[in-house]
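Could someone model ribulose-5-phosphate with this protein?
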Amino acid sequence: MGSAAASPPPSGSPLPSQDELKRVAAHRAVEFVEPGMTLGLGTGSTAAHALDRIGDLLRAGALPGVAGVPTSLKTELHASRAGIPLLPLGGAAGPARIHLSIDGADEVDADLNLVKGRGGSLLREKMIEGAGERFVVIVDESKLVPRLGCTGAIPVEVVPFGAPHTLGLIRKVFDGLPGFSARLRTVKKDAAEEMFVTDNGNYIVEMFFEDGIRGDLRDISDSLLRITGVVEHGMFLGMATTVIVANRDGTVTLLHKKK
Ligand SMILES: O=C(CO)[C@H](O)[C@H](O)COP(=O)(O)O
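Reply:
Sure, complex below.
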């Protein structure tokens, strides 16, 4: 990957909070937005800063003709409150043309492969970001990892019908991989534990790899997608064109996909 770093802030200034770093990365990404663009609008706390910034620039008249395709119901609500005109993904004229998507990520490796979807929106994110001409990922430094799966689960969206069966198939396929385990994601509601349900009415299987994935990511992706009942997974391989990293020291690094 190629990279470019901005200069640090003056010494003596206090270290920025993680949320401030997210905002810095998001605002830098919005500099790529041009009038007339259709945007893929990401989901999560980092992407939320980009929505607010785009909304501010639209209100100031700086981004005429900009509209967005939201990657989740939460983003749809946030973007419409921010005044961003919304579009569906595709229509009578055929597939959508998305000039630029901006979204956060849970993990980024040295090849700019990502884990996304710990917020549960991976399917719409992959559909929209995969359809775009450019995909700019915005993260704070804590998201950079040596191997995908180092800091948490790889989410896999599965249909609810026979979900325990699909979980069993996933376990069977990946059982040989070091430190592997899998479970269905649940959420606490009042005192009870319930299945987590995505915007598409599906469930999430969480795949864990102690110390990250040591196998071939493409092979793992292909094996997962061959399991009937699996809808999509949260490894975004080779999709990011640029990753904007807000560093703890206040600098910003741009990492570009190798041509
Ligand atoms: O993939 C996602 C949601 O499905 C998010 O982009 C990812 O979870 C990062 O979230 P945050 O910006 O809040 O750290």
